[in-house]
Write a structure and sequence with these properties.
The longest helix has 18 residues. The strands form three sheets. Strands 8-7-9-10-11 form a five-stranded parallel sheet, with helices on both faces. It has a four-stranded mixed sheet with strand order 3-4-6-5. Strands 1-2 form a two-stranded antiparallel ribbon. It has eleven helices and eleven strands. It is α/β, with parallel strands linked by helices. The two termini are 33 Å apart. It folds into two domains: 108 residues, no CATH class; 132 residues, Rossmann fold. Helix 4 packs across helix 5 and helix 6 runs parallel beside helix 11.
């Protein structure tokens, strides 16, 4: 149950539109629901502001679909990550309201129109070293957008053509947080860390030839960055980077004075 649903329930209870017994029945499901093969955390949105997100890779199609359906009954917005095309087809057949993006491999559901962030809102800049890094970058960018954050993208700006990155210095300078997604040797993140005055989140990808060790080389390069202010998530973890960046942006938005216009 998210904050809006809980507020609606309590308002209906206060106004007499819902009985105490009815409210108690709904609240019995907090903080979770045990499906046997999964123990749903229905209280997470109240604790952290973000609902539980389903990591679908490794789950059976039946389990992933059932978990998403149950969460959809309790939340206004839900997301599944690492969804392949076969699983996505099954989910959409059971939940027609769902949207699937094959590039980011995200399944999302949302009730009602999502208010876009203000044009002058703090933003996350999402950068990639190469085009092959875009799927991981899109997982990060679309996660941010799903949770209501503003995102600006700059793809294929790796250090092999450093002028491409230097052309984005204004974008980097005005960002509140930068997500730097790179495979191979992962050098992009160190360079971005030397250009940015904001936090930089490095995302190593498993893109590269044999000695990249499926992203381990990029991970170690980012962890050993000589630029300060760089944090690093796990290999290919665009979702984790997106959530981290969203929390930074959310804190910034919360600290902004309310508009008097």
């Amino acid at each position: 149950m998210d904050i809006d649903k809980l507020r609606e329930l309590l308002t209906h209870l206060q106004n007499g539109q819902t009985s105490v017994d009815e409210a108690m029945e709904r609240l019995k499901l907090l903080p979770g629901e045990n499906l046997g093969y999964a123990n749903l955390d229905l209280h997470r949105a109240l604790r952290s502001g973000l609902p539980e997100v389903v990591f679908c890779q490794g789950k059976t199609i039946e389990h992933a679909t059932a978990i998403l359906k149950r969460l959809w009954q309790h939340h206004e917005r839900i997301m599944g990550t690492r969804v392949n095309s076969e699983m996505a087809a099954a989910i959409l057949a059971e939940i027609p309201e769902a949207h699937y993006d094959p590039l980011s491999r995200l399944v999302t559901l949302a009730r009602g129109e999502v208010r876009p962030p203000a044009a002058d809102a703090p933003y996350a800049a999402v950068l990639t070293g190469g085009t092959a890094d875009i799927p991981v970058a899109e997982e990060a960018a679309q996660t941010l957008e799903f949770f209501g954050s503003r995102v600006l993208r700059a793809y294929d700006v790796g250090v092999a053509g450093i002028h491409r990155l230097l052309d984005k210095q204004e974008l980097i300078a005005k960002a509140t947080v930068v997500i730097s997604v790179a495979g191979m040797e992962g050098a992009l993140t160190s360079v971005v860390g030397g250009l940015a005055s904001c936090p930089v989140i490095g995302v190593p990808t498993s893109v590269g030839y044999g000695a990249s060790f499926n992203g381990l080389a990029a991970l170690l390069s980012m962890l050993n960055s000589c630029a300060s202010g760089v944090s690093v998530v796990n290999i290919d973890n665009g979702f984790g980077a997106g959530v981290f960046a969203h929390r930074i942006l959310h804190q910034m938005q919360s600290a902004r004075p309310a508009s008097t216009g």
